[in-house]
Amino acid sequence: MVVLVATFIIFLFFSGLLFSYNLLYIELKQSFNSTTTQTGIPGAISISLFCFGSVVITILFQKLGHRTTVLLGVSLCCLSLLLSSFAQHISVLYFTYGVMYGIGFNACNIASTDLILRSFDKCNATRATSTTLCAISIGFLASPCLKWLYETYSWRIAFRILCVVFALVGYPSALVMVEINKSDDEDSGKEDSNTTQETFSIANYSALFRRRDFILCLIGILLSTSAVTFTLISVGNYLSVNGMDLSVISFVLVLMGVGDLAGRIIAAIFSDRLPISRILQNALSNIAAAVPSICLPFISTQIGRIVAFTVMSVPRAWLLVLTPSIAMEVSSDETRAESVAALYMAFGAGAFITTYFTDAIYDITGSYDMPWFICTGLYALSTLCMVFSERARRGRVQNDVQRYDSVDKCCDKI
Predict the structure, then answer these.
(1) In the chain, which stretches have pLDDT less than 50?
(2) Distance CA 207, CA 195 (A)
(3) pLDDT for res 372
(4) Hey, which of 42, 172, 233, 285 would disulfide with 98, CB 3.0 to 4.6 Å?
(5) How would you write the chain as a 3-class SS string?
(6) How far is 347 from 154, CA to CA, in rounded Å?
(7) Buried (b) or exposed (e) across 103-113, using 16+ Cβ within 10 A?
(8) For residue 347, how many C-alpha atoms fall within 13 Å in the half-sphere facing its CB?
(9) How far is CA 333 from its chain centroid?
(10) Which residues contact 403 (CB under 8 A, 6 or more apart)?
(11) How many of the other CB atoms lie within 10 Å of CB of 124?
């Protein structure tokens, strides 16, 4: 329970800034007079590395422990904000904000998520992760606060203020995270290396990439993440070029946060109880997200756009929440940590390429219609990947059952 609360607090503050890049996007574009693509890159890099560095972070917390890894992540995020506040060119933010903040929050996310998964069984895993990830949605609701900071003090001073605030809440939260002791014979002083320590193994990744269901999930998550990241980075600019001022954009982001929170709460309550796998839940979420995406190029009213973004946020939340649970469905207990890391890497890869085929297209055409059509296509392709992944998973389970039945029959004959 302590781990859940500590993770919730870290996610609330740190992800609130990361996923409110739509507001920062507008401030940076005005401050540096940069192009749409240039302005989107720091946000794309940070969200990408928030996930893409998962393999390295997995090795790190297996060597140093979860608490130490989270402490390092908090330190990197605070340093990122401080250094970014002195940047004189947008390209400097590619590293100080994009790389440093992305890796820092990734360390907090992966280490704390793995600790939660170790603390809960498979039946309650989605409920536990969904509960902590609800903090991201609540972070969206802080958009008016960020807007006030940006308008009152400028984004540079706001970053320095947030650096201090993040340190005050991040370090105490990390310190209360207690490591899970997996040794069964601690009292006798004996240590079994097979149960007290999980080591990074290339063999585990090799075993994962031989699974067809895992490969298809990997591709599906990469595709859907590319579409999801577009809504996390460029919605602010899209609304701005369509005549909305910063106050209205902030209000839209709050509504998106409400929709996101509703999606996470629904997932936390019902995902583990639904009679279908998390993989199929992901496929259905892709379909639900594609509907408002395909409609946006044809919507001409501000109210219509606001409704579309609010509705889109609900399935988007499911797509983000389900990733750790899907990793458990397409892996064995021995490869669980590697599966989570690999799927988050796919998440990061999808986020990284987003700005190059969405904002770049806007720079060329002056319209966001084509990017929305591309996002719809990505959701559709991801749906197909997830459906075929579920089919492969069921075939694998059936083959395992038949194999065990054959072994049992042979034993009976003997």
Answers:
(1) 182-200, 407-408
(2) 20
(3) 95
(4) 42
(5) CHHHHHHHHHHHHHHHHHCCHHHHHHHHHHHHCCCHHHHHHHHHHHHHHHHHCHHHHHHHHHHHCHHHHHHHHHHHHHHHHHHHCCCCCHHHHHHHHHHHHHHHHHHHHHHHHHHHHHHCCHHHHHHHHHHHHHHHHHHHCCHHHHHHHHHHHHHHHHHHHHHHHHHHHHHHHHHCCCCCCCCCCCCCCCCCHHHHCCCCCHHHHHHHCCCHHHHHHHHHHHHHHHHHHHHHHCHHHHHHHCCCCHHHHHHHHHHHHHHHHHHHHHHHHHHHHCCCCHHHHHHHHHHHHHHHHHHHHHCCCHHHHHHHHHHHHHHHHHHHHCHHHHHHHCCCHHHHHHHHHHHHHHHHHHHHHHHHHCHHHHHHHCCCHHHHHHHHHHHHHHHHHHHHHHHHHHHHHHHHHHHHHHHHHHHHHC
(6) 31
(7) bbbbbbbbbbb
(8) 27
(9) 22
(10) none
(11) 12
pTM (predicted TM-score): 0.80
Give the chain's domains with CATH numbers: 2-179+203-409 (1.20.1250.20)
pLDDT for 298: 95
Q: What is the pLDDT of residue 193?
A: 42
Chain-centroid distance of CA 248 in Å reads: 26
Separation of alpha carbons 308 and 304, rounded Å: 6
* C-beta separation of 42 from 94 below 8 A: yes
What tens digit of pLDDT does each residue of 305-359 get? Answer: 999 999 999 999 888 878 878 888 888 877 877 888 788 888 888 888 888 878 8
Whether the Cβ atoms of residue 77 and residue 166 lie closer than 8 Å to each other = yes
**Residue 135, both tokens:** 């903090």
Return d(Cα 308, Cα 297) in angstroms, integer: 11
Q: What is the pLDDT of residue 374?
A: 94
Within a 13 Å sphere around the CA of 39, how many CA atoms are in the beta-carbon half? Answer: 25
Are the beta carbons of 261 and 134 closer than 8 angstroms?
A: yes
- Give residue 330's Cα distance to chain centre: 18
- Distance between CA 357 and CA 226 in Å, rounded? 10
CA atoms of 33 and 10, how far apart (whole Å):
33
CB atoms within 10 A of CB 123: 9
